[in-house]
Amino acid sequence: MNLIPTGEIHFVRGTPFDFTLLTPIGARIEEPDEQLRFGRGYDHNWVLDGPLGELRLTARVVEPSSGRVLEVWTTEPGLQFYSGNLLDGTIMGKGGRVYRHRYGFCLEPQHFPDSPNKPHFPSVVLRKGARYWTTTVYKFSVTP
């Protein structure tokens, strides 16, 4: 698999990776995009806007039929989005429900993958005696 970061940073506007407006996760997941093929869907790190270390809204997911909303706030520089591409029906969840291909998704605030090998990525080096602080808030609500 070709899932090791190259170090390139691409703009998402106008691509299948553009979620700057509310868009169903599966709306463009099958588009003929090399990166989507490599990951079998979304399994990518988004570079987040805003000052490093400042708590900010980085993702908002709305489930329209129930009105459930998930917001992800973080101080991290990146957000890994995984769309359940490797779920194959072998895992059972709550109530015996089988998790099939793309039945779920993950939003994981983080530093960029392979950061130690990419000097232009935010550093993940923590020196002896130094402290590292991060904050992530998953906020759940329901729209009326």
Strand content: 25-35%
* Shape descriptor: globular
Which radius of gyration do the C-alpha atoms yield?
Answer: 17 Å
The strand order across the widest sheet is 1-4-7
How much helical structure, as a percent, in the residues?
under 10%
- The ordered H/E elements are HEEEEEEEE
Query: What is the count of DSSP helices, taking H or I runs of 4+ residues?
Result: 1
Q: Pairing-aware structural class of the strands and helices?
A: mainly beta
Q: What is the total tally of β strands? A: 8
Described by strand count, sense and barrel closure, the largest sheet is: 3 strands, antiparallel
Unreliable stretches covering 5 or more consecutive residues: none
Distance between the termini: 43 Å
Can you tell me about this structure?
This protein is mostly beta strands and 144 residues long. The protein has one domain (26-142). Helices cover 4% and strands 28% of the residues. It is built from 1 helix and 8 strands. A 3-stranded antiparallel beta sheet has the order 1-4-7, with no helix packed on it. A hairpin with a 4-residue loop joins strand 2 (56-63) and strand 3 (68-74). The longest helix has 6 residues, at 34-39. The protein is globular, with a radius of gyration of 17 Å. The termini are far apart. The mean pLDDT is 94.
